Amino acid sequence: MExxxxxxxFYPEPLPHKDVWSADARQHIFGKWREAARRYGxxxxxxxPLEPLELxxxxxxxxxxxxxxxxxxxxxxxxxxxxxxxxxxxxxxxAHERNYKKPIKWFAIPQLFRxxxxxxxxxxxxxxxNADIIGETDPAADAELISLLIDSLRALELTAEDFxxxxxxxxxxxxxxxxxxxxxxxxxxxxxxxxxLERTPPEESQKKLAELGFSLDEVNQFINSxxxxxxxxxxxxxxxxxxxxxxVKVDYHVIRGLAYxxxxxxxxxxxxxxxxxxxxxxRYDNLVKLISGGKVNLPALGFGMGDVVLLELLQxxxxxxxxxxxxxxxxxxxxxxxxxxxxKLIHDLRAAGFAVDYxxxxxxxxxxxxxxxxxxxxxxxxxxxxxxxxxxxxxxREEVVAGVNGAANYLR
Amino acid sequence: MExxxxxxxFYPEPLPHKDVWSADARQHIFGKWREAARRYGxxxxxxxPLEPLELxxxxxxxxxxxxxxxxxxxxxxxxxxxxxxxxxxxxxxxAHERNYKKPIKWFAIPQLFRxxxxxxxxxxxxxxxNADIIGETDPAADAELISLLIDSLRALELTAEDFxxxxxxxxxxxxxxxxxxxxxxxxxxxxxxxxxLERTPPEESQKKLAELGFSLDEVNQFINSxxxxxxxxxxxxxxxxxxxxxxVKVDYHVIRGLAYxxxxxxxxxxxxxxxxxxxxxxRYDNLVKLISGGKVNLPALGFGMGDVVLLELLQxxxxxxxxxxxxxxxxxxxxxxxxxxxxKLIHDLRAAGFAVDYxxxxxxxxxxxxxxxxxxxxxxxxxxxxxxxxxxxxxxREEVVAGVNGAANYLR
Lengths: 412, 412
Fold this sequence. Notes:
Two copies of one chain form a homodimer.
Chain A: E1 10-11, E2 21-22, H1 23-39, E3 43-44, E4 50-52, H2 53-60, E5 70-72, E6 78-81, H3 86-96, E7 104-108, E8 111-113, E9 125-134, H4 139-154, E10 163-169, H5 170-180, H6 187-196, H7 202-211, H8 216-225, H9 230-241, E11 248-250, E12 264-270, E13 279-283, H10 287-291, E14 300-306, H11 307-316, E15 329-332, H12 339-351, E16 356-358, H13 365-374, E17 379-383, E18 388-393, E19 399-403, H14 407-411
Helix pairs in contact in A: 1-4, 4-9
């Protein structure tokens, strides 16, 4: 029986096959994300992986349904696996925002699901680091969020040589659009064309923009000017003060396809532009109001960073450490009459915090020792009798004999 | 818009409402589970939350479908949200077992989903600590697994006063059944009756057992004898050698409802028997073969421990620590001309590993200080000028002035 296409199995390393993923690398990345969030004072939240379908259609319109894992449950509810976290966050914040001081700084690491047409290597689920700030309109909040984005990548040993945050402004594009076109209904189509500019042949973009009453040359001129708006300048100055100036640049190619962004927007890319975006986000000041049916109105901004592109980048830059089993002590049981006492020793060492392994059943001494080596144990420990334990450092080959109750202290 | 019934929202503490759950307590429990597994040499794995429906029906028969979140996806595949982890584990192990030395000791913390009829407080999802040992028939493996179960509860400060593992044997019941009844087709129904004994009025059990050709009195006599089989005795002796004798007792009431158990079975309960089972598991030596369509035959055993009952127990025993925001340093910005330098200080302290917060926008000094207190910050730090920083310990009220580059060292 096979797993579903587009879904992943995560195995312990070393990996048994190129077609599976590393549970250890995943935990490594999650740990660094959590740690960066902690340093920035972001608190963790989570919501259900299954939500009412309406939560997603309210935010993104009915066209989103084609990309969702949606169905009708046994209670006749239209439901969907979550395809993004922001609607859930908006729902949760709207429900209880009065209990939290503003700005609210929260993060989550949800697994997200999208039914996309099957392509080679294209997945239907991924994990995403989501960080959001709610209740602050000042660009200082945008800078704080982008700073967290940068530092969560730096925590994985990535540098300014490896990635850059391309900063842009939905506002700037809104101004651009409305000084040239008064048919607001066309705005979203225009933003979509800008969003696709880099992935579309120029002739095609030119045609599309002309249809909307715009000139590709003029659009390119605006992009190439790269003049930061006052808002973007405040963000850039703030990041520069932190010493993060090298990690960010203004780039009006970025506009973010989604309809709901309202202010500064940004995407993180590998410097070589070989991969898809590592992360993306921006301001969505109207979304909490929309999701709460007008009851709660709070400015908000956030980003999402997926685990798949990030993992590709870390692998390409050779930045994933080896993830062996971490065995501190392998207890050798050569005299089976000492097995009960050995079990006691094993248990005491584990209680003292050590990772301990041993042969569950009688085995030849050389086989046990080989297993200790396979597990890359730091030490072996073997009872000489019920009072003394022989501890051997497998790196230095040093050996000491300790009282059985002093073994943990010796190893510490 | 409301979340679906039976699903949970997890908020940062302090909790805004009695109807939501603590993301902090969840992470606390997950951390202790992972830490116990590490000490025992168990490696982490994970699989997809969505699996082919067939994976579950192969293991549990078609009757399971009524309890599943199942649907047909956009590619016409019959799929289901995972209701248990063991089928996925069996699939994953069967696919790549040759790459792993036996016994395989693995764990996972999946979220599981069941569409159960809506009852007060009854959830439709929970998280479950799953630990399994694959490739070892000896009861030493059962003892190792039960020892991990016990120590993962002890890691949460629970003691032998709080919980007990009731150990039983599907083999013993099989023997009991087959010496009295030769109609094997009735075996499962008999096990189900035993499983329900404690939750069913005696008259009803008596009637049911009589129908199957058994006597309730005789069944109770067998249960009350409590004689461990040789297999169970080996497990008890092994656990006693570790010093865990007080945490386990033979109790033939336990039989585990599920069809696929083949040997020792066990359940962990709170000593006062006020709650549902905290954990349950046992041997399932035929399941890997079944799931792999006969290709791989490996003995196996495992347990699952849910987060919901465990959380109830920890709350009842007052064993959950407070989970406040952990702010190491709150940086006060009283002179706005020093904001850029303050941002640098904030960034340096975060880079040194400290959790740092500050007012994103200009605020009155007393308001900033109040926020530092609300966040229970250990220190405040305030630039006197661009060279010196005034660091105040909010507990001792001690204050020092340090060079701006020495602040991190002072705080360490």
